Protein 1
Amino acid sequence: MLYGILRGVSYFLQIIGYAMWIYCICSWVLSPFNKVMRFLGRIVDPVLRPVRNVMFRIFPRMPIDISPIIAGALLNLVNSLMWRVYFMLAL
């Protein structure tokens, strides 16, 4: 049962990660007022906003927003740690 829940959480984290990269790529081409951008923004902003806040406090004059790279790495880290803890407890 726990395996199924963790698998669902893992899929959810992957979907958020893919949505984040699609949002970043679309931001180069589409207007921020586009329906697709607004939809993806609602999905991705809760993940990117805290990372952006920390990044802009540490580097207030950074010309490039690298928060999607950091957020993607954090999503992968959470996913990896979740599975490691599960397999440690399962043995």
Note: The helical segments are 2-29, 35-58, 67-90.
Protein 2
Amino acid sequence: NTVGMHAGIQQLNIPVQANKNYRYTFYYNLLSGAMATNLGIRDSNGDFEGKIVSLLPTGGIWKQYTRDFTVPSSFTGDFRDIIRIKNGEGYIDNVSITEIPTISLVKDGNMEANNLNDWRSYGLPTRLTEKTTIKSHSPIKSIHLNTIGTSAGIQQLAIPVKANKSYRFSFYYNSSGVMNPYLGRGTSNGDFEGKVIQLATTNNAWKLYMREFTIPADFASDFRIIIKGTNSDSYIDDVVIEEIFSRTLVMDGNMEANNLIEWGNYGVPTVPTEKSAVRAKSPTKSLHINTTRATAGVQQLDVPLKAGKKYRLTFYYNLVSGALTPRLGIGTSNSDFEGKIVSLSSTGGIWKQYIRDFTVPANFVRDFRLLAIIKNGEGYIDDVNIELLP
């Protein structure tokens, strides 16, 4: 409580190390006044990167502040964390500084800069793209993108990714219409992997989009992020590209995402495929497929497997009726690359596991496909996984 004054708390001699990457987080519930935080080296009055962040009252709820940073190579000791309030009252909890393998390659991804210098327009929005405090995921600002009556967005060029490295791209969005995120290589007019993603309205809630990818061996420069809105009023926050050291081979295999972005249709189900909480293996949702009087299912393309390697496919299924066929394809969804035809029958209301070991051909190049097809029936699928075997 600093009503009538300006004061706070600090911790000195935090044992960070030179050249290491860290994530600084804390939760705050600010009732009044203004909260500020900074990270100092042998000084509590300034920030070692020149960043002094001011946080506004939270309306009685808890919010999280997050910041990634790299300790300078010249660092020798006395790293400090300072949190203070000017003429107000608030609560602070769960303060943490933890080492992380890498920091985001996206500039101003948390949208907290006071300008749009790191973000360029894509197309011609009907209203100028702007930073706003009306809605934010964390901590206080987001980018507001209004494309009602048109299609346009934001982009960031020359992201310093490296050939043969794998990365995770993610951001939070709150949108009233369709949004299309994609990744460009030397152009903003197409995705470098040919992916076409459509994110539907979020009904005034924040949702997370995530994608993993690997940079081609012949990549030289100018990797791009593009996030486009079509006839939508949208907010974008916490855009991140970070290096990962092993890719998830099956995206959304636990079926916990709030959408079906990673799972495309195969055939034309009579009832749309959907996520369901009616039956789930773990933890809360499964994939529900209903193909009464039809043969259809779901598929995932471009699974990032490697030539000559041995893998194990596993998943759980709860088949109410009909027959379930798992299939692995290369360049086609209409046949199995090993010629296997498997027909799994009704499980009587219980969950069963399917396991298959396979070796990717030595001449494999790209577009390995995973399918689950149900003929004239209904079922649930969960915990889909492909793992590399020794």
Note: DSSP finds no helices and 21 strands in the chain.
